[in-house]
């Protein structure tokens, strides 16, 4: 039994396909099949039922948590060796929060720790959860609470609440009454921009999509441009449009039937013991400062993990 066999086994479970698993691991499908046959021969059991879809046998289900534990332990061992050789911190963040939360905090951190390697990875909620699960990163910034069943043992250190205003172009806003109805707004801009800020859309956001004649789902950058052109309206997290609103490129509106929306995000780790490393705790404190600037801190447990040279409160 070797790690390549276990990683292949784990990836096939995730992808539910030998072909997709092989592509992700950058190996041939034949190699993936060979590794699984070797693992099954070693264990003396069949791990998968092969057909139109690939599913685990009862024996495969039983073996899966042990395989993942071995993979995780090996990854932790490698990370420990790397940290001995050279300081390194790694974080995975929702794509929309890299710029508002990490950029300035990273500059301050690197001034204090110029020789430390920093890895910042971005992605969607499920991708960040997978990075944490596979221990590719030590900490993450994602929507909270996390409902992804892949990772359930996450420890939130800071929880931030951020406004999610409804915005339109200045030209559209100028034609609206002081407190317009949503029907009045949709009569001028019938297209709603659907952005997946949440793991599950709040009812008000989902209702707006249902009421509109058409909707479009776009990444943040093109979505902002569409709204500025008056070709759509949508809910945007405040950090994504704050500068546009200040500059007058977008206008926040508050239809009578729609109460304000918010998004909660958290800085999380799988094991708080990683904060025994002072430089990691320092980096988290720097990010927490940006959280306080961007939104409202509704839970902060970082006082339990003080900056280097300070005592816990």
TrEMBL record:
What are this entry's molecular-function GO terms? Answer: DNA-binding transcription factor activity; transcription cis-regulatory region binding
Alphabetized Gene3D superfamilies for the sequence? Periplasmic binding protein-like II (3.40.190.10), Winged helix-like DNA-binding domain superfamily/Winged helix DNA-binding domain (1.10.10.10)
Provide the HTH lysR-type domain boundaries: 1-57
Keyword list (alphabetical) reads:
DNA-binding, Transcription, Transcription regulation
Which CDD domains does the record cross-reference, listed alphabetically? PBP2_LTTR_substrate (cd05466)
Q: Give one Pfam family, short name only.
A: LysR_substrate
Q: Cross-referenced InterPro entries, in alphabetical order?
A: LysR_HTH_N, LysR_subst-bd, WH-like_DNA-bd_sf, WH_DNA-bd_sf
Q: Which residues cross the membrane?
A: none
Q: Family assignment?
A: Belongs to the LysR transcriptional regulatory family.
Q: What is this protein called?
A: LysR family transcriptional regulator
Source organism per entry reads Devosia ureilytica
